[in-house]
Amino acid sequence: MIKVKGFKFAGISCGIKKSNKKDLGLILSEKKCLSHAVFTKNKVIAAPLEIGKEVLRFNEIYGVIANSGNANACTGKKGIIATNKILNSLSKRTGYKTYNFFPSSTGIIGVQLDYEKVNNGISKLVKSLKQESFKDFAESIRTTDKFIKFKHKKIKIGKKEGNILAIAKGAGMIHPGMATMLCFLITDLKFNKNTFRNLINNGVNQSFNCISVDGDMSTNDTVLGLSNGMAENKIIDNKSTDLSKVTKEIYRIFYSLAEDIVRDGEGSTKICKVTVKGARDKKTADFIARKVSNSLLFKTALYGSDPNWGRIIAAVGSTQIEYIESTKIDIHIGKIKIVKNGELFGNLKPANKIMKKKSIEITINLNKGKAQAFMLTNDIGHDYIKLNSLYTT
Amino acid sequence: MIKVKGFKFAGISCGIKKSNKKDLGLILSEKKCLSHAVFTKNKVIAAPLEIGKEVLRFNEIYGVIANSGNANACTGKKGIIATNKILNSLSKRTGYKTYNFFPSSTGIIGVQLDYEKVNNGISKLVKSLKQESFKDFAESIRTTDKFIKFKHKKIKIGKKEGNILAIAKGAGMIHPGMATMLCFLITDLKFNKNTFRNLINNGVNQSFNCISVDGDMSTNDTVLGLSNGMAENKIIDNKSTDLSKVTKEIYRIFYSLAEDIVRDGEGSTKICKVTVKGARDKKTADFIARKVSNSLLFKTALYGSDPNWGRIIAAVGSTQIEYIESTKIDIHIGKIKIVKNGELFGNLKPANKIMKKKSIEITINLNKGKAQAFMLTNDIGHDYIKLNSLYTT
Fold first, then answer.
1. Domains of chain B (ranges plus CATH)?
2. Around Cβ B281, how many Cβ atoms within 10 Å?
3. What are the chain A neighbours of B352 within 8 Å (beta carbons)?
């Protein structure tokens, strides 16, 4: 049974979504939490994020209230009022302060959130809090996800055993920005504040910041870490001998959730890791990996299981990065070299087979330096078009 | 009958394409031409472009030789040799120097160009040169274009009458980078060198540089202007009273060819002009217009005739431009205001009707300054996926 000491979870239906689907969730910790969050870089951010950013400054977070079915984005002053009304209602029913909770919303953009529906559900929500109900919470933040997403790991620090549990929802943007990647990492391990902050930031950079579903960026994306320290371990700081172990586990959890999100991308049939090697610096390596991963021509080739190196090399060149020389570029699909010095190498038959797999690795070597970066991407096919064009606002 | 004084055209089949489709074209001027070209900014460029850039330095251009069916890109040294062999053969059969011709190729990437097929066709090509055969030339540079693209305008400068004829091919990238936007502007008007250069550069910036078919950039894109001055008009320079008239016509020709290219984009069912107003500067206006036009979510909404302003506003915000305030943004679809201060304005029914049209105008006002920019884009639907995924390299 997965449990994280001192944390309870709930997920219920309050009527935002149709047909009694779960759409309201709560996480509550017995003790106050160390918290750190990473947000969307989109300049247009949702009302709960505006409030949430302020809330986190107080650093006395006890939990999260989240709804799906409505992102409360592009809703102006009314949107801010709605989130505040919800936090007030939650405060009354729990005895905590309004700023003890981080608010989160995901779903349709530009439609006012019916906060009365939420508030009518809060009593039931609070009553159904249980240590083992994290799957209900995971269910309550789903939008177009085909499956709920969570990862758990027990970790021993000295003689104390702690838990890390992360719950996420997908990034595909269906319907008018039925958007948003959300991830809540909950742990009973005790951390130094800066160490925890760095772990979250670096983990996000190597996972959620390296995924491309459709190249669009949502107004609500949030990764929030909460640590209540109730495992009573020796505090994990930058000098801890256990830091590397914990770092590895948090990265692994974030990475596999990121993979799940890409795999579950709208209409996606396969996942592909694009690695760019031999770059002069990390920044350009990252930029090239992103350009290839977001290329519509590359994504449709992926869908068609086509080892279309012409499109890959054209996408690399389209970055206009000065030091790129097409006659130096090598490309591997899986372990098969298909391009050497910018030209076709050998025959494409073995690569053709690999392209038919559900999980593909493509490596582009610029042969110009030692820096590298990767992106996780997926294919774009008919189901993506169907999901994203048939909806009418 | 459209003619441009001193220019002859030809287009024949030499066997690069299947089933005797025209795939080799020639433009030849009696007198040497003033020339200026704008090229792809892709760092990976094709062999003919590498040679063409050198050729243009001599500034004694008499014409263009172009083939379709093979882009001669990512073909290494062999590709350079192939283009040189073709120029040699053309030189022998016409008496001109090899560097009197600008070479151009479009079609599949990464496959060696069979220059012997081209050279076997050159006698026939030269023999079929005629003043009125520009449509044969237009035909010979087609790849996936559904229709040939040309615009012509007679212009009177003083008592002399001159002609501007521009021939283009489309930008959709089907097959492994069956790429490339090509445009050749041919005129018998006499220009000052710098004036001609500026006209081409500025014209391209306001037309071909403002189109987005799939956000990808080809290895062969070229716009070449040739002026042989045989209309014997008073030279057009920066002080000419006729300059504004000529400028307007060249821009109009480029713009309507750009529209044709977008309209003919792979699997496209409609065309949309995205204008960004009220920006602080031209550069950011342009960046935002590009971001919206390339957004896959926006393009699929366009396909579904969905006035999905949430996706538009999310794409605007994703540029991360500092001065954007979502609560200042207004959006019009046609003349209907659908968003005011970042929120839904009125109802979407009239906008729904406009979205069903073949040609749509969307205006985004940031209300932050006086700069503006536009992009022409198209929708992405099932035919795009079909065309781009079913091909196997």
1. 7-263 (3.60.70.12), 271-389 (3.10.20.340)
2. 15
3. 392
